[in-house]
Design brief:
The complex is a heterodimer of chains A (337) and B (310).
Chain A lengths: L1 H18 L4 H20 L1 H31 L6 H17 L4 H28 L3 H23 L14 E4 L2 E4 H23 L1 H11 L1 H6 L4 H27 L8 H14 L4 H21 L8 H15 L14
Antiparallel strand pairs in A: 1-2
Chain B lengths: L3 H20 L2 H26 L7 H19 L3 H23 L4 H14 L3 H4 L1 H4 L5 E2 L6 H24 L1 H11 L1 H6 L4 H26 L3 E2 L6 H14 L4 H18 L10 H16 L3 H14 L1
Antiparallel strand pairs in B: 1-2
Classes of the chains: A mainly alpha (337), B mainly alpha (310).
């Protein structure tokens, strides 16, 4: 009995720590890292350019990581099809532009389509298996990975497609540092989307309902929240964030192909784990940290060439899992037996 | 006496397999060999995922290691191909244990993610060490076996490894595996050494994947290249294990046939029967099978049996 009480107490304490915000040591480390980046950027223009580029790429990883976290919080599975879904919605935007819409008209139309797609996927394919077997639900997302890949290649072919540059090709010069408007644009778009999603969860009744449904499904049901509907909306929002990631990944890679999101999915996994799989803020910060450090390491550490970028992300993922399985911002789960 | 029905079906399967090369065209024999290759890999994954409860989405990586072992040994030392398969078994066992060690601290979703990252990373390594591992162009074995040789080798290896798996799973080790799957805490409390059995399960199942990878390379004219071991291969293995379900020879056969044959068969389906259409059919089939029988073919079989008895 005593151990049960103790573990419950510890659980409460951990939850309090998680609610109270960031662990002080980790926030200190992050501030130190940011300071180091700033100093480095002031001393070297290449370093500054790479930092901005890394932040933009990291924002894309973070956005997809956030999508994974939303799905994980809603359904407690990892959606392996999240990246392919993002890639597919990017192709939808490409098609809309081909049909004569401007880039930004297509952008917002695509977000709407992505929301519907995510919701429908949850209702039709995930929900029926989720309660019978979690493994089966994961396999369904794996099947979706292959299915979406096939459908996109079938419709649009495997060759490269090109979309108009959303932010033009302007390059700003600050002192000796030249920064492409593209990277700033990516950063701004992703951060706005993330902030909007955060505000939705924090300030609206719908957001409150979704949080309740994710944390305590049974109790939420009792106070009149339609848990099923909330989960479906969660998947829809995840698909929207994924679409943002895909649409912003396309200009950063300068082309569109069916494998666009596959490496990014791995980085997003690493980012989500780095942040703690349950923490939305952690996913975004994890994405930024990973984007910047990968870009800088490939440039400055000769042993890590660009072929080793993926294995390196894997090493980060593994190291985090081994040293601190709950990630930077995750809370330790206490299990009662 | 209790093993009699199982033994009967085993003999039946063996008889059909022995007869197949005399009945089928060379092309279909090659397909049947492909089923054998996936049979080995799915069987191995089943030991880890099904019996020990540790998910892996990275077994394509072990197949890659096994495949490259065969290709490099044959290229540099003209080693007998059967011996390279034994080497692949041993090397992948070691790699499996090495991966299994960090995996001790992971479970569920986290293990899935870590092994998935493994599946993505390993095929990148030949690009880095291109002198030894051939880079994007791959490695070519010194000799290439015939279809018949391959068919015989694949199913002989399947038979040996199936018996080995049966021997492992029926005894003390198998009981420990199942105990770990059902409840780690209860297993530890009953004296099962968790680290030993988890890494052992990883090693064994990786070794199986290694042999499958070795045969897989021989089946593509003895050519090992990074693209053959793309992530999709790992996903296919997991799908095979899920379609197979647990604890049934028939299940594993069906699971292996599902992943080995469906892409080929579906490319001849009208309407979408193009090169790209096969992914559509395969993906849709996976989703549909999981929706209809979440416990896999073995689960379906058990249900049918219960129904027949009632």
């Amino acid at each position: 009995m005593a151990t049960a009480d103790a573990s419950r107490l510890e659980g409460l304490r951990n939850r309090g720590a998680a609610l109270g915000g960031f662990n002080s040591v980790i926030s200190l480390l992050l501030v130190a890292a940011a300071a180091a980046l700033l100093v480095g950027s002031l001393r070297s223009s290449t370093f500054a350019q790479l930092t901005v580029e890394g932040l933009a790429l990291g924002a894309v990883y973070g956005s997809l990581a956030l999508a994974l976290v939303l799905v994980y919080r809603a359904s407690h599975i990892v959606n392996f099809a999240q990246g392919e879904l993002a890639m597919a919605t990017t192709y939808v935007a490409y098609q809309l532009i081909q049909w004569g819409l401007s880039y930004w008209e297509a952008f917002f139309a695509t977000l709407g389509i992505a929301f519907v797609l995510g919701t429908v996927l949850e209702v039709v394919l995930i929900r029926p298996v989720l309660h019978r077997s979690a493994i089966a639900a994961v396999i369904v997302t794996v099947g979706l990975f292959i299915l979406i890949d096939g459908v996109v290649t079938w419709i649009w072919g495997g060759d490269f497609k090109f979309m108009p540059p959303p932010f033009g090709t302007t390059i700003y010069h600050v002192g000796s540092v030249s920064i492409a408007r593209l990277y700033l644009g990516i950063l701004v778009v992703v951060l706005i989307s993330v902030l909007l999603v955060w505000a939705l969860f924090r300030f609206t009744k719908l957001g409150l309902g979704m949080r309740a449904a994710a944390l305590r499904p049974a109790e939420a049901e009792l106070v009149g929240i339609r848990v099923d509907r909330m989960l479906a909306i969660g998947w829809g929002l995840a698909a929207v964030l994924g679409a943002v990631a895909g649409l912003m990944a396309e200009p950063s890679q300068l082309l569109l192909e069916p494998t666009l999101m596959q490496p990014i999915l791995v980085y997003a996994f690493a980012a989500a784990v780095l942040g703690g799989l349950e923490s939305p803020a952690g996913a975004v910060v994890g994405g930024l940290v990973l984007g910047v450090s990968l870009t800088l390491i490939v440039q400055y550490v000769p042993a890590v060439t660009s072929e080793l970028q993926l294995p390196f992300a894997f090493a980060v993922l593994l190291a985090v899992l081994l040293i601190k399985p709950s990630g930077l911002f995750g809370r330790r789960t206490v299990r009662r037996v | 006496m209790r093993h009699l029905p199982a033994l009967g079906s085993l003999v039946a399967v063996a008889a059909v397999l022995a007869a197949l090369p005399f009945l089928l065209s060379a092309y279909h024999v090659a397909l049947a060999a492909q089923v054998g290759i996936f049979f080995i890999a799915v069987l191995g994954l089943n030991i880890l995922t099904g019996y020990t409860g540790q998910i892996s989405i990275g077994h394509g990586a072990f197949m890659a290691i096994g495949g490259y072992t065969t290709a490099v040994l044959s290229r540099d030392h003209h080693t007998n191909l059967v011996l390279t398969m034994v080497a692949a078994f041993a090397i992948c066992f070691v790699f499996g244990v090495l991966v299994g060690l960090p995996a001790l601290r992971l479970s569920g979703v986290y293990l899935a993610l870590a092994t998935f990252a493994l599946a993505i990373s390993v095929p990148q390594l030949p690009l880095k060490w291109s002198n030894f591992l051939g880079g994007r162009d791959g490695v070519q074995t010194a000799t290439t076996p015939s279809h018949l040789w391959l068919y015989g080798a694949a199913w002989t290896a399947s038979a040996i490894l199936f018996v080995l798996a049966w021997l492992i799973l029926r005894g003390r080790v198998g009981r420990a595996f199942r105990a770990v799957r059902d409840s780690e805490i209860a297993a530890v409390a009953s004296g099962v050494e968790l680290p030993l059995y988890k890494t052992l399960a990883f090693g064994i199942s990786a070794a199986y994947a290694g042999v499958a990878g070795s045969l897989f390379v021989l089946a593509t004219n003895g050519f090992a290249a990074p693209d053959e071991f793309a992530v999709v291969l790992s996903l296919e293995l997991l799908i095979g294990a899920a379609v197979a379900g647990l604890g049934s020879l028939w299940g594993i056969l069906v699971g292996a046939a599902f992943v080995a044959l469906l892409p080929t068969v579906s490319s001849s389906v009208p309407v979408i029967g193009s090169a790209h259409g096969q992914d559509v059919v395969f993906g849709a089939a996976v989703v549909l099978v999981m929706l209809l029988i979440p416990d896999g073919f073995a689960g379906l079989l058990a249900q049918v049996r219960r129904f027949a008895r009632a």
